[in-house]
């Protein structure tokens, strides 16, 4: 004989069981999704680490730069906006360099941001190595510009300590031969895509107005700055 009470209990128990089954299914689904997200995060962490060590093969173990056959610039402490803009510049042929085109064109936007943030936080000492006798003259150019040639003070844009801001790069501790090459070759290497005018135009008059001696002096000063 089944009392209504008993039947009620049984129905309630059944409902509870169905309910728990649903809960566990939801739980299992949540667990699977979480595990998958974890996997993806781990994979992208691995991907970031792999790319970072690839960059450092050329740019040096702390991204301090490398005196190669072509000077390889320091990336450590660089402004993230500048780094992102330059990687995009290689991709869009605004900036011509075959090595960096090949490196940059396969990077996704999120990987570019992650790489840039990583380099921003590095702070190794400068490699130095530039001729010392020009440093004082270079400091004057950096702080006061070259008034007779209408060259503005570099510090006005690059900041008093040459650490840059936004799309204006840090120059402190940058490799001497790289700085010289960029300033001498500006018009041949930067702003090369006429359909995409860019920030390189801001530097053009400065680079064109400096003599080789002035370029070497300011580059020597900057290469020792911390
Ligand atoms: C095979 C060597 C090599 C590898 C690998 C490499 N680079 Fe470069 N990179 C260079 C060279 C050489 C230059 C200088 C290009 C020039 O003279 O215009 C450069 C320049 C750059 C610049 C411009 C810096 C500036 O101050 O304007 C950025 C940004 C950059 N690399 C980022 C990266 C990142 C990020 C990676 C890794 C994903 C990477 N590079 C991997 C050789 C390399
Ligand atoms: C009016 C602002 C302004 C002034 C003044 C200025 N710069 Fe720049 N500079 C820039 C900008 C903007 C960039 C980034 C250009 C680009 O995106 O290609 C730059 C880029 C550079 C670079 C390239 C760095 C790299 O990593 O490749 C060098 C070198 C440089 N400036 C040196 C100087 C020196 C030396 C002076 C002073 C004699 C100077 N600049 C004055 C705005 C300025």
Folded structure, characterized:
- This protein has 226 residues and is mainly alpha-helical.
- The chain has one domain: Cytochrome Bc1 Complex, Chain D, domain 2 (Orthogonal Bundle).
- Helix content is 62%, strand content 2%.
- The chain is built from nine helices and two strands, in the order αββαααααααα.
- It has a two-stranded antiparallel ribbon.
- α2 packs across α3, α7 packs across α8 and α7 packs across α9.
- The radius of gyration is 28 Å and the shape is elongated.
- The protein starts with a helix and ends with a helix.
- The mean pLDDT is 90.
- One heme C binds next to α1, α2 and α3.
Q: How much strand content do the residues show?
A: under 5%
Please tell me what the overall shape is: elongated
CATH fold topology: Cytochrome Bc1 Complex, Chain D, domain 2
Question: Ends: how far apart?
Answer: 91 Å
Count of helical regions: 9
Determine the mean pLDDT: 90
| Level-2 CATH architecture | Orthogonal Bundle
Secondary-structure-based class equals mainly alpha
Q: Uncertain segments of ≥5 residues (pLDDT<50)?
A: none
Look at the structure and name the CATH superfamily.
Cytochrome c-like domain
Strand ordering within the main sheet = 1-2
Features:
single chain; 226 residues; mainly alpha; Cytochrome Bc1 Complex, Chain D, domain 2; two-stranded antiparallel sheet; 9 helices; 2 strands; binds heme C
Strand-helix topology:
Layout: H1 4-59, E1 66-67, E2 71-72, H2 80-91, H3 98-104, H4 109-120, H5 135-144, H6 154-158, H7 176-189, H8 200-209, H9 212-224
Antiparallel strand pairs: 1-2
The chain binds heme C (2 copies).
